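Q: My labmate handed me this sequence with no annotations at all. I'd like to see what the chain might look like in three dimensions before we decide whether it's worth expressing. Could you predict it?
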Amino acid sequence: MDDSNRMDRREAIQRMLAASATISLLDAQIFGGTGTALGYGTDPNLMEVYKPGALWPLTFTSEQRRTVAGLCDVILPADERSPGASHLKVHDFIDEWVSAPYPQQQQDRKLILEGLAWFDSESKRLFNKPFPELNDSQKRQICDPICSLEKSSDELKPIARFFAKFRNLTMAGFYTTPDGMKDIQYLGNVPLTQFDGPPPEVLKYLKLS
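A: Here is what I predict for the chain of 209 residues:
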C-alpha cells in the first residue's frame, strides 16, 4: 500500500483530537501537563507528520512507559498473526492520548496515572519487583481480578474501571496501525483506479444478489 494514501495511527489520533476540539467550548479552561491554558489554540496541521511531544508535553516517566508497554503486551501479546502491542508503539499512543489538553483526555489522564500507581504498588506488594520485571504468569495474576468490571470485587472496582479504559485505549492504538488492520483483515484505505461495485461474494453474503 502506498504510504501517502494511508492514514496511520498518529494521523488518526490527530484528526480525532482536532475534531474533539471543534465541538468544545472555545473559552473552556483546560489543564495540561505544564500548567493552565485558556482555549485550545490553533488546530494542528493534519498534513504534517508530528513527532512525539511536538503538539504537547508528554506525561509518562520512563518507568511508567515501561509499565504501560508491559501492560499493553498482556492485553495484546505477540502471536503468529501480528506483533505485540508494545512493538507497534501503542504505549506512545496512550502517552499522547493522556497528555492531550482536552477535557476527555485530561479525565482519562487522572484515571490512567492512578491505575499505573496501583500496578506499581501491587506488583511490589506481591512480588517485590516492579511490574515490567514480572514474568507473564505474575502479570496475569495481577490482571485477572480486575479484567472484568462486573466480576471484580467492590474493593477493586476503581482499578477495574482503569483496566477497562486502558484496554480500550490499547485496542484503539493497536488496530489503527497497519499491522492491526492486517490482523482483522481490514480492507479499507486502499486506493482504487476504478470501482466496479461491491464484489459478488459480499452481495451474496448480505443476501443482496
